[in-house]
Amino acid sequence: MPNSDAAFEGSIPVIYERYLSPLLFEPYAVDIAQRIAPLAPRRLLETAAGTGVVTRELERVLGEDTVITATDLNQAMIDVATTTRGSGHATWTQCDAMALPFDGDSFDLVACQFGVMFFPERTRAYQEVARVLASDGAFIFTVWDRLAVNEVTRIIADALTARYPEDPPSFFERVPFGYFDVDLIRSQLIESGFSEVAAETVILPSRADAALDAAIGVCQGTPVRAEIESREADGLQAATDDAARALVARFGTDRLESTMQAITLTARL
Length: 269
Prior knowledge:
By secondary structure, this protein is an alpha/beta fold. About 45% of the residues lie in helices and about 20% in strands.
């Protein structure tokens, strides 16, 4: 995996938080927090926490009785998270999910929303989760299902392919929408020390105030931005406009309303 695939830096974190969070991440943040709340963990670790979309929801539903430690590889994402989360009580740490700086048996629950797809060595990351989990703990995480069933991003990917037919950007299918084989994920978890793995497909609404908002979020607030700029140095806005026009052709000029599909997994030791 190229280093740029996990690079959320420059203006990306701010755009990610403003445009992508409501489009893609906030609905699943509510969903995963609702799954975690009944478990009432006392010590919770979140990996690949990004700009804190899930973190904020966990703070809301769990309250201050739960000690929440949120982590991310990219300090720029943490910087945005800590300036937008208000009076949240989570503690933030910059670290690599494949080398967690915590002792064994440190957490009752580990959560990760749409992060494991970015880990270069997923089995190593899962082994780290197993190491820091209490013996009766749980690992709850979400991955995107295939690109074909995630309409908004698929339309944008198709628009970028049309703009760069000789060398289409491949980030979407390689990384965020490229890790949906439940049998593979289950086998990697078991190899890493987990014994029980449950998976559930979750379909939720995907909404934006306008097509351009969605296009900006996906084209400029993710690492596909680097793929666009490597193909056309001054083409980012034009590519974004192409994506917006494709979305308007499908959804019209009013508020964008679609659906998205992911897989939520719960693993226990």
